[in-house]
Amino acid sequence: MKTVAVTKVGRLADPDEDARGTVEVIDFPRQPLGPEDVRIRIAYSSICGSDPHVAEGFFRRDVPFGLGHEVSGVIVELGERTTRSGLSVGDRVACNFLKFCGVCRPCLDGRQQFCENLRNEYRRPGMSEEVVWHESQVYRLPDSVSLLEGCLLEPTSIAVRIADKARIRVGDRVAVCGGGPIGQLALQVLKMSGATSLTMIEPIAERREIALATGAEHVIDPIAEDQAARADEITDGRGYDLVVDASGSPRAVRGLLDLATKGGTVVYGAMYPHDYELPLNLAEYLYQRELTLTGVFVAPYAFPRAMQILPHLELAELTRAVFPLEDAAEAFQVHLSGKHPKVVLKCNDLDDLDLQ
Ligand SMILES: [Zn+2]
Ligand SMILES: [Zn+2]
């Protein structure tokens, strides 16, 4: 079974060839189908901003290990005890790559993202010809969502959780920093939630254009413009009620606290380098300004709502760059170039099923 795997840990863009990480397509054994499992032939699997970090060894795993957690596909086989979920062979689906155990203390306490039994046999890679996951991980796609769009369910779930953590109120002034897929999706979700003065902060012109076409009222180029002055201009000197970071960039997050209004919220909705520490003056930002700072790890509970809004999102710009599974190494290079906000792998040709 062809699967995209990290065969050497390292930075994928490292100029030193000896240190550079390697992603390639290798053969993995077919996974067994347990009684509550679902076998899915993968249609599309998109590259996540986190994948290069995983290849760098963020989670410290032994090579080779497979990649891929943003998938859509078609059910080809059901375990004998899967009737509870109402799934059928032939269903078009998208998935949550995490299987929460449901019985550990964090799971019982409503904090499934901290499930103590995640490192189990269900950690299976989605950039593959097929995957076997537990029925609790599988969601049926509505007819109006194509398989290509469906692979964006997982990143959409993160955008939904960002809105949850932000506790946005209708009319809040909102800035999003970083116009990658999570930033673009978060922008659209926050717009739906009543965001005003909606601003995308992003150095790449094409990504600012995408944001303007999908709901941003303002854009700021943080390199060519004075970010704080522009934010003042847009918010009449008051600052934003909500600032979301979706850039994951230590350089970009530095100035964000100063964009928030007194009593405002800053959501760090990205993956950050292990060793980065944000300077934070407690007297100023937490005592005098009463800012709320929060973050997002993964998105339990957000999948059903992500599926509800998927048909209402503008996804064309996030589904333009599609590569065959075999060309995964090239697709990763295109992802790293930043040319497209999202790069998608086509793992099987299942699109005509969309016409049914
Ligand atoms: Zn992802
Ligand atoms: Zn658990």
Automatic annotation (TrEMBL):
UniProt keyword annotation of Secreted present: no
UniProt entry tagged with the keyword Metal-binding: yes
Start and end residues of each Enoyl reductase (ER) domain: 21-345
Domain of life: Bacteria
Signal peptide residue numbers: none
InterPro entries assigned: ADH-like_C, ADH-like_N, ER, GroES-like_sf, NAD(P)-bd_dom_sf, Zn_alcohol_dh
Top-level enzyme category: oxidoreductase
Keywords: Metal-binding, Oxidoreductase, Zinc
Cofactor(s) annotated in UniProt: Zn(2+)
Entry EC number(s): 1.1.1.-, 1.1.1.14, 1.1.1.303, 1.1.1.4
Pfam families from the UniProt entry: ADH_N, ADH_zinc_N
A GO term for molecular function: metal ion binding
PANTHER family in UniProt: L-THREONINE 3-DEHYDROGENASE (PTHR43401)
The protein's name in its UniProt record: (R,R)-butanediol dehydrogenase/meso-butanediol dehydrogenase/diacetyl reductase/L-iditol 2-dehydrogenase
Taxonomic source organism: Microbacterium thalassium
Lineage per the UniProt record: Bacteria, Bacillati, Actinomycetota, Actinomycetes, Micrococcales
